Amino acid sequence: MSDSSIKARIALVGNPNAGKTTLFNALTGKNQKVGNYAGATVSRKSGTFFTPHGHKLELIDLPGAYSLDPNSPDEKITRDVLIGDQESEETPDLILCVLDATHLERHLYLLLQVLDLGYPVVAALNKIDSAEAQGLSLDPTALSEGFGVPFVAISAMTERGITQLKHALRHPFPSPPGRLWKGPAELEDAIEKSIKLAETKGETHPTASGLTSVANKGPETKEFIQKTRFEFIHRVVEAGLQRPNEDSLALTDRIDAHALHPVRGWIIFTALMLTVFWSIFKLAEVPMGWIEQSQEALQGWVESLIGKGDFQSLIVDGIIAGVGGVLVFLPQIVLLFFFISLLENSGYMARAAYLMDGVMSKVGLSGKSFLPLLSGYACAIPGIMATRTIPNAKERLATILILPWTSCTARLPVYTLIIPLIFAGALQQGLALFGIYALGTITALFAAKFLKPSLGKTEAPQFLLELPPYQKPQWTHVLRQVGERAFAFIKKAGTVILGLSIILWFLESYPKSDSDDPIVQQSESFNGQIGEIMEPVVAPLGWDARMGTAMMASFAAREVFRSSLAISYATDEEDGEEMRDRLTASTRADGAALYTPLVGLSIIVFFVYALQCLPTTVVVRRETGSWKWATGQLAAMTVFAYLAALMVYQTGKLLGYS
Amino acid sequence: MANFAKDLELDSALTLSQAAIGCEFQIRQVQGPACSQLRDIGFCEQMRVKKLTDGRNMLCTVCGTRLALSRDLADQIQVVPA
Q1: 0.80 exceeded by the pTM?
Q2: In a domain, A97, yes or no
Q3: What is the ipTM of this complex?
Q4: A31: domain CATH number?
Q5: In terms of Cα–Cα distance, which of A643, A648, A535, A540 is closest to A602?
Q6: How far is CA A30 from the centre of its chain?
Q7: Residues of the domain holding B51
Q8: Contact by Cβ (8 Å): A128, A138
């Protein structure tokens, strides 16, 4: 019979790329909870599962770490949880250490450090199928004897060995083997005294504190301990692991010979990126058409149901036009996240970072900054959080400050609305989108070059990166990631965008004018009045009052630019006409076309550079620990965006474009 | 005599950046400001390392793991032919 109360807490520990998250998902399934560690933006993932004996256990997925001597804020959380220094987090009852069987020796170092702390441990030898495919012969019994803890061979991806692993996690847990390596008598004496001192001081984890204080006595002691641990690992692994004799050229080697080549590598990278951007336009066409048709059908149905009046206008022109105008971009956003997740999952992202290191070093950053910048294409917030893996503090700050210039998906609705006004054909439109992303990235890199020296002197960033082997994407993982993002987007459309659409509709519809002419109504509405104030500010950019109002509204959320225009133009144009056709047909007071390619370019340039995302500003404040950087970034990016759009429009006009 | 043999071995040691591509080496010593970080990721004494590419950043494998590291870091790793 199963017992619903939690019997024990297990922490999942392992090196990055060991397959921790896959194992976490395999064990806990849908019983997961995501939160944050107190005082940190590092996310805390926990879940529950039952052992074959019916005991309920809680599993905490700790951030990946190479060792318990932290080199980044992520690794610090793992260390702090294990030594009991993490606020509002109890120390776990057992550690489930995930080891990559294909890179065993390297991963065992962390296991040995965990054992030093005196925890009971179960070791999961993950990726056993890949190890077997490489001809590696592992002996879990010999490893168990050597380390004094159970070793279970598993494949988290195919869920092979998960039942055996659950059996090994049965309660009561195995007794901890303690520290396995021994130093000379002098060192052992020092460690013993230090642990006793920590005990008398009442430290939470005296073994850890004692060992750490001895190791920190000098670099020589630390080096000695590191070497002794590796010597121990070497001895045990000789008995528990046999490598194949011939050095076969693995699939990863063959792919990397092209993917990391100084010329072919760049061709592959550019081709991949172009394919992604082209697909965003081409593949999304059909589902976008369905959403547009559904929106129109829904508007027609509501119009037939509710009589003409303010209520009908609120539902049709406010809510359906505003929310639908944003929801129509769901297929493009899903595709972008799908491709990013696919590239990450297959192991290609680390190769892109390797290639980019040469470019990044020219602006004082390293390839490590490229991965957060790439995440920024999806959303700036996870991108900023991903900078936690950058060990150099100045490099991290510079990356955070330039990151919002890598175009996130919230800008996509604006780009994909405006690009077809300038270019026809999916290929040209795809190239234009690629160009927009390149513009943001190149400017961000130039900004880093000028910004970094002003942040103070620092050591040149050093590049050290693991390149995981290429693997077939884990489709469940990819689909889960895409699903989460799609849900977040729909939720945003149903909450923030819905609320703002209602406000915008109200500002557009009130106060009521005596005239029946929709143009007069609009000019007398609150929006019209705001537009009048904004017009002198945005007129030098080639924009009209409605665009100015939409730009102001988009500071709450970028997507609202599209909703705001949809609501503005829904009130004075013929029914059933598509939004883009309405924009093309709209004119200035003198009858000249309003949305010319030059105006489109000016809008795009503004949106590439403006930081119109309050959650990003809040996260920058949290990550940098200062409002100075967060507000400075917001102000600087807004001013830069305005000046860039101004320069584009005015230069274009001087060159004879309208 | 034993000391002489060790000195002789260290004299013949190369840094990883000087090592030839495609050959297997054993790490003799890791010394420099980033030595702790290098050991944590797997570049520890006695480990076998194979250099795959050269350049500003080089690729190598340690215990089957493929790692990319900058020349500055590779200069801190002394190796001898395995």
Answers
A1: no
A2: yes
A3: 0.87
A4: 3.40.50.300
A5: A648
A6: 21
A7: 2-81
A8: yes
